[in-house]
Predict the structure of DUF4037 domain-containing protein.
Amino acid sequence: MDEEALLKQFAAQFAHGPDDADDTDAAAAAQGADSTANQVADDADQSPATFDTQQFLNGLDAIFDRHTAATEAGPYLEQAMVDAENAGDEAGLLTVLNETMGFYRSQGRHKENQWIVQRALELAARMGLTTGTSEAWATTLINCATSMRAAKQYDQAEDLYHQAQSVCRHSLAPTDRRLAALHNNLSMLYSETNRPDKAELELREALRIIEASSVNPDADIDVSSSHTNLALTLLTEHKLEDAHWHAAKALEIYRTGHLEHSAHYASALAGFAQVCFAERRYADAVTGYRHALAVIEECYGKDTDYWRITADNLRQAEEAAAQAGVTVDNAGVAGDAGALPQSGSRLPNSPAQGKTGANAASSPSTVSVSTGSAGAAEAVSACPVSGLKLARAFWTQMGKPMIAAKYPQYAGRIAAGLVGHGSECYGFDDAYSQDHDFGPRFCLWLTDEDYAAIGEQLEVDYEALPRKFSVDAQGRVTFEAHARSDASGAFPSAGAGSPVTPRAQGANRRDGVFRIGDFFESITGYHTAPAQTAPHEWLMLQESTLAAATNGEVFADPTGLFSKTRQGFKNMPDDVRLALISKRLGMIAQAGQYNLPRSLKRGDGAAAWLSIHEFVQATASLVFLVNVPMVVGYMPYYKWQFAALRKLSGSMFALLPNVGEQLETVMRLSSAACYGGAGFGEGGKGAAPAIEKINDIVEQIAVDIVKELKREHLTTSGETFLEWQRPYVEDHIASDDPVLKSL
């Protein structure tokens, strides 16, 4: 079975299981949020909510117990959302949203799930959960991240998982199964993004937590699912013996506990079948997949990704069995390879370290690159990997071992990653980006106390790290662990290299050792994010500034303090977001719908050109604000604005996905519209066709925006001159602070 099919099978295994915290822990979201919601109700002297959360959960369990989820769960969840919202029960609504995310994910309804993810994050922010470390916030983050991962929105998923990690360190006990769920989900993300070594580590930790928390690990479904997850990851690393042991152990647990009628049994069956397929035991693979399909059909129906992926894998197993001359009867019993392992059968010993496959690839060719901290080294050729990937490898191979060796007592307190200014922090760097400020680098973030103790010496040790590396044909980066040859940082035979520009030196340096507060102050002017109750301070921060403070990746954050501070800047108050949406609506109307056509009629090409600029800026910003910065990030500065907009528009979950392309068309036609196209090959047609096209696009964008505002219940008006939509949007601003109101 090819790599793509293997990853598809991976996805199928986790449609439900211990990695999906929302299957079992939505009630925790309600319990963790109740105190906040009840306090709000008490303060407002409101009557008690009439939505019964426990009754809702019992009803949902009953639907799954009678195996009618495929037809009944969707309408049930949709009605529950309406009931909870009508009752004013925010905690109950958050519970329903968490459950809905899990169900929609299992049904492959990823586009619809975007609305649920956004509603959950916005609701949590409105309830004041996002600034704390509550179980409700941890559960919601995990569920939102898992929904993003299932839809292959990996960057957003990884960011949400890391936020969840930071919260979980403070909110959950060491043996809480939601920690195992988080490790399982992270392993899935690492597997789907070709990082199997990290996936294996996450899964072994998840299994340890699950076993430690279990009353009887030999009859625990979650323990079984963890074994299945680990078996599949080991399979991608060609550790077949270890993978077989864990897959067989998973089935043994189901049979020991007489749990074969559980919906999750399908995951264990399909997991064992996957291992059998890799071992060329095709008859056993066919048997396992057939049994798994029967369970999936009974519990979830056929119209799901779970069923389709498993059916496709069964087809491949049947074809392989036929080609190998192996027969399998219609009942699914292997004709010559024996049945699946039965309860009580002896399992092979599980090796501490699984053996690698026999067909290891030969060493690929490599591309060597040398750089120096001050730009004294010259790249032999353009580096074929992104700056973020290079930074992560530099940290893993050089930085982390150095800290462990020289600062063991601080290793559990130092955060590392790459965030801030620079193309690579946005993930948009390319070969052209390597002519300046390029090379292996990362940031180390310390508390004030730790910086006072070791900051200066740690900076010296960071600067002394070897920076010569090679990249093989598969994109793997390897650093050479030897010292530099001279004080300039050059390596033997290295040339003059990528220069470091003045804006990336001194107080503006982009890598090295920082106090956490100083790092964020250097970007935003604030040590920590403004208070949620200080909208005037939020409104003074440009979106591009917030983008620089929240982009990039965090490689390690043992205490969670850096991530918590970073999360503060991501958590723009919803009142501020709505106020900015109102401002953008005003500018779109003023520049695009009013002044642009008037300037063109006057023949004032310069005014029209500037009107287009303002219209494009406001509209692009609106797209990010509507999609919620906490989910998709902030719009970066002008250079990468459209790169980010294209990436966002290409997302399955994007709201207003066509606007970016429409804006680019407006800009392309602006020469002809404003100046008759002189010098651009469009002058022969004159300005009239371009003007007509631009005006049509502007009005179509306005129509699309109004539709989205209606869908989000931010307006009840169909007026397409967007200035008149502003009062409707501002009516949803809860604060009375006049700085948030423009009318």
Remarks:
- The chain has a mean pLDDT of 80.
- The first helix runs from residue 3 to 13.
- The two ends are 62 Å apart (CA to CA).
- DSSP finds 29 helices and seven strands in the chain.
